[in-house]
Amino acid sequence: MKIQFLGTCAGIPSKMRNVSSLIIQMLHYENECWMIDCGEATQHQLLHSSMTLSKINKIFITHLHGDHIYGLPGLISSRSFQGATGELKLFGPKGIKDFIHTSLSISGTYIRYPLEVIEIDEGVLFSNHAFSFEAIKLEHGLTSFGFRIQEKDTPGSLNVEKLKSLGVTPGPIFKQIKEGKQITLKDGTVINGADFVGPLKKGKVLAIAGDTRQCNNVKRLAKNADIFIHEATFLDKDKHLAYEHYHSTAKEVALLAKKSNVKLLFLNHISSRYSENTRDLLQESEGVFSKTFIPNDLQTYIIKQNNEVTLK
Ligand SMILES: [Zn+2]
Ligand SMILES: [Zn+2]
């Protein structure tokens, strides 16, 4: 899985950080490429990366505050100018249809690819053989969702050496063995497929919170997540401001990650008051949860099956 942070600032951009947006690439799954939120000038940020607009096939909007959606009309329109023909699905809270329809129609923008805008509520937005994608309502000034992406478990690896020792060579029979079926070999030996397959590979959980203050649902969002991406708009000394403005502090999120058995924590949506020096935020979070990352704009993280992180 590849995660690229395009914008990590809260509310208004700073010189170092643009407003919210990130890209998730599900490398194993037909190159699914998703954008989460699309603040103003997100398309400019993309110009500094190898990602092209035509590759993005789904956009998910956590909530309708301007710092999460003002980049949409321009990006949708440029995707067409650049000749993209593949469908784009845009998921967002109620009101997103009006926003897109109004901005495209009054600016006379014609889109040459199929664009479907879907207003969402809590629940599973879609699922397929590989994962399910669920929206969970959080607590913010406007309706705000977190997204929980649960990869499905996959069968363990086949013990090829053990099979070879019984004279079983690769072929269609391997598929049946992997499915755990009972099979009679040519010499009459009956083997049980399950004896040759390693333990189930647990599917990963990726959880991404929209803007929120701490609430019960955010605990549900975070539970056992391998990768948890959450806003940390404030330091804990400004806790009262975080609560008043429906945001969270780095410490609150680190405590949540710890209690929820999270493996890796990424903090974003950093207030511009700290955006050029995130050392205090990082220290505050690391004091509670050591596996904390505060990405800069345009940083890409590649996360392997064993949760090993490489920064590109
Ligand atoms: Zn925001
Ligand atoms: Zn907001």
Automatic annotation (TrEMBL):
Top-level taxon in the UniProt lineage: Bacteria
Cofactor: Zn(2+)
Residue numbers binding Zn(2+) 1: 63, 65, 140, 211
Keywords: Endonuclease, Hydrolase, Metal-binding, Nuclease, tRNA processing, Zinc
Function: Zinc phosphodiesterase, which displays some tRNA 3'-processing endonuclease activity. Probably involved in tRNA maturation, by removing a 3'-trailer from precursor tRNA.
The family this protein is said to belong to: Belongs to the RNase Z family.
Protein name: Ribonuclease Z
Lineage, opening ranks: Bacteria, Bacillati, Bacillota, Bacilli, Bacillales
Gene this protein is translated from: rnz
